[in-house]
Amino acid sequence: MKKYLFTLVAAMLTLGFTACEDIPAPYGIFGSDGTLNTTYSASFENGTDGFTFDNESLAPGLSSVWSQASYNGNGYLYASAFVNNVAQPAVAWAISPAIDLSDSKEAKLTFSHAINKANGADLSQCLTLWASTDYDGSAAAATWKRLEIPNYSDGTSWTFVESGAIDLADFCGKENVVLGFRYESTAEYAPAWEVDNILVKSDGSSTTGGGDTPLVAEGEGTLEAPFNSVAANELASSLESGAASDYVYIKGKISSIKEEFSTNYGNASFYISPDGTPQGQFYVYRALYLGNKKFTDGDTQIKVGDEVIVYAKLTNYMGNTPETVQGACYLYSLNGQTADGDQPGGGDSTGEAKGSGTAADPYNSVAANLYASSLASGENSPSEVYIKGKVVSVREQFGTQYGNASFYISDDGTSTDQFYVYRALYLGNQKYTSGTLLNVGDEVVICGLVTNYMGNTPETVQGQAYVVSINGETEPGEGGGEEGGGDTPDVPSGENILDNSSFEQWDDASTPTAWKSTTTASNATLSQSTDARTGSYSVKVGFYASANKRLATREYDLSAGTYTLSCYVKGDGQVRLGYAHTPNSSITYVYDPNYTTVSAGQWTLVTYTFTLEADTKVNLLMMNPKSSSYAEASEKLVDDFTLVKH
User: Fold this and answer.
1) How confident is the model over 343-364, as pLDDT tens digits?
2) How many CA atoms lie within 13 Å of 374's alpha carbon, on the beta-carbon side?
3) Which of 12, 300, 382, 619 could pair with 521 as two cysteines, CB 3.0-4.6 Å apart?
4) Could you tell me the CATH number of the domain that includes residue 296?
5) 54/22 Cα distance (integer angstroms)
6) Residue 298 parent element (H or E)
């Protein structure tokens, strides 16, 4: 949490008592006896701190207003409907988690905010604060009471000012109090609003809604004793950023729906809690339907209040958002109804996912399929996993020509729930020269990277997986082998390397297939556009006035050599091409030293040629720059993105 309040208090204390009567109490929110507790706080250092965004109305072509942003290490919520140098009409809310004031008789709220580009707008009418006790996921349907903000800035700078103390007396004694920051713009004005350091102090208990809920964690994560949302939040929050848990069951009632099931993508995103209120809610992200199937017409839609059991892996997305893992999550039951008795597994699986993917506890084939399927199309797993099973069939036997083999494995050696081991190296991570060959029924352990090839084939990555043991034997056998693991495959000269380079394939409305990094290289808000240079779609890349935003590919293993990166861009302003890599676990960006000026009236070709001195894993990217003296930040359309080796 940022220390503005506490630094101010400490600074006053160091002045001693000689002039204390001249020093006002900070924020003016302490009770007469100075005993108010911190009941809720949000500083937005690493995410939204449980805030959700509700777009009540947006102008055509406007996809979002609110976001979490940061500048010089300071995080905050940011709202703007100024797009392509034009003010766009919008009404959008940033809504807090539920705050429990049930045992409070006195409560005060403060926050800091900065406002710029107001252009004469009446800030007290377009940037407002409200509170509700019956919010259930829809701002338009909730009953709101306006809270007057004492202090606004002049609307012409990024300097933060303190709101002043706001009395919450009308909400004391209430359990589920949510705050709503309401942004309203018109075609004449669309100010930029930054909100930070939200603090509620009361004479009641120190509790917060969302991820820091007073509710009790319950359950064991099994079907017989599912986690509740509190336990799911705790488990996901305990994980390192981007890591995934084993599969668990979570039970709760739907508190709000962010993306309802659709036939386009077949999944849905929603929140669940023990009682269907926002308090203690957990985010279920892009879950498939009953039976681990995509949603189709005729199925029952979910609604607020439905009781569900979810079977999923959990993750701590970006280190600050506990949620389920996309592609490794589905509804096991909906109001007690299951998919004809289907049990957890991948797709049409009838088996149970087992193992954690470690050497001591390998995945079985069901878990391997689910994990690989959770990856974006063409994306490699971030680290090696271990998989154990019996050989079902051998597609390409080990041979001396290529030194690898392709085969299927499953738990019991039958074709049920089989997983594809594609061109794996031999024992000892070596190319095969001689030794034991594979037979149907052999028990093997595999170690390596996995991928979701073409978005529909979970398998190991060619040249990045090997056989650890065959029927317990770990030695290569007579003739040994030739060291082969880790080679970066070379790329044919003159051919485009990038998957989905024309953005025709989409995982969902905001994620073009193969265009999502496992690092922060991908940080722009993306959306699908039908204004395409070729084909049906291009990608719309969002912007932020105070920070650069990036469109980035998945990770690619590139061999040493010279490459030309190019794309077509439409939109007023400038762009810059480059790549990112992660030497020594720290991300490094390499850009074209020159910016390219583009316009909204035509598609402009942008190119950048660079040389890699050694084999390197990279994300290829386009930067959408922040506003500068050269150009204002704006949305950009991008199409036909290619990478060619010379």
Assistant:
1) 333 334 456 788 888 888 899 9
2) 29
3) 619
4) 2.40.50.140
5) 43
6) none
